Amino acid sequence: MSQINQQLVNQLDEFRELYYTKRAEAAQANAEADGAFAAIQELLVPVLQAGLQEEAPETDPDMVTPPPSGLPVYEFPKDWEKWIMLESGSTFEGVKVEGLKHVGISASLAGGPDPAEGITIQGVEIDGASHWGSRMHNVKDVEWEDCTIRNVEREHGIYANVSWSEDISLGIHRTTIENVGGQAVQTVWRERESYDVEKDRQAGGLILLVEVHARRTGWNYEHGRNAYAFTFGDLEGTDRPVEMVACTLDNTMLERNRGMLTIQPRSRATVESCSFRHTRAEQTAVLIDGVEDLVLIGSHFEATNPSDYDRLFLKNIDRLTIQGCTGNLPVYRDGELLGPISEISLSE
User: Cβ distance 108 to 115 under 8 Å?
Assistant: First the structure.
């Protein structure tokens, strides 16, 4: 072997040894970081539950300024990249969470080994998160009660990949969601995010919203997540019925809007005693497609400066009930105009 080739071989051996050394050091560092984060997380939630009082940060004048809540406050460091991870069977209550950079509350990971099951979130305020107020996967028997989510910059107030349940998969009660760049509530079922695909393909698991109040949503056009304020999205062939009762949407302070409500295919959906108001739609204001049994009762649908997109567009509805609704949006069914929502009385 020539002297030059021998030098190259020696250099290659040195580089190979250096590579494996650095990789081993990196693996050790990652393991230590994961262990440190797990320890921090284990300590953090009890601290929050115990009510550690910290001084609240100054509020951005462009954000919603909430009244004093009286809840114990924990402000996260500005470079905190993680979130509060709740375990199945837990109750998280009576805390105001501020300053989380990415997600406020999470439970289960996409496609992870554990479901988010039997969780109650009660009397919690989430103020400020870059992406989601809450992002949960494999959700079943999860209840939100008397909560507030505000000042979420990029995406949604509550995102849930909703699993099968014998009863309620997701319940949201007496909860306010305001100043959210994306959607107030988005529910879906996605196989790639699911814990038990075979079981999740069964029909069942109600999505129930009662007195959920959304305000100033969908204003962030930069990140492209500002769709319908209430999105009950694609279930990839599964079935999760939807009920909305006494919910409200007020987006009249925004000059343009990306829609009020969409419901994608499922066996049944009921919207009762709700009010949806915005200024002017840039896409169909209400889109409901593939619902076998759709009931709209005593609800209000209004655009204060309507465009041609301000309409209720219904597709592939087997049984339709519209009773006692008000507002100025026309209703189309499979492309045919039925008339203004306020003049329709229909029960099939």
Answer: yes
Helix (H) or strand (E) holding 36: helix 3-50
**In the chain, how many H helices and how many E strands?**
2, 28
**214 within 8 A of 249, measured Cβ to Cβ:** yes
User: According to the model, what pLDDT value does residue 196 have?
Assistant: 84
Q: Distance between CA 308 and CA 159 in Å, rounded?
A: 29
User: Are the C-beta atoms of 126 and 134 separated by less than 8 Å?
Assistant: yes
Pairing of strands 148-152, 116-122: unpaired
**Of 243, 247, 285, 245, nearest in space to 268 by CA:** 243
Whose tokens are 């230590």? That residue is 32
DSSP designation for 203: B
For the chain, the domains span 3-347
On the 0-12 / 13-18 / 19+ scale of CB atoms within 10 A, 39 is exposed
Place of tokens 């996605």: 190
Contacts of 258 (CB under 8 A, 6+ apart): 218, 226, 227, 228, 281, 282, 283
Q: State the residue for tokens 């949960």.
A: 136
Q: What angle do CA 116, 145, 300 make, to 5 degrees?
A: 110
Mean pLDDT by 10 residues, the chain (348 residues): 54 56 56 50 46 36 43 48 76 81 70 78 88 87 95 90 92 96 93 85 94 94 81 91 98 95 97 98 96 98 97 98 98 97 96
Cross-strand pairs, 289: 315
What does DSSP say about strands 73-75 and 96-98: parallel, antiparallel, or unpaired?
parallel
String of b and e for 236-263 (b: at least 16 CB within 10 Å)? bebbbbbbbbbbbbbbbebebbbbbbbb
* Contact status, residue 234 vs residue 187, Cβ threshold 8 Å: no
The confidence score (pLDDT) of residue 58 equals 38
Q: In angstroms, how far is CA 311 from the centroid of its own chain?
A: 24
Q: Do 142 and 167 contact (CB within 8 A), yes or no?
A: no
Q: By the 8 A CB rule, do 269 and 320 touch?
A: no
- CA 304 to chain centroid, in Å, comes to 27
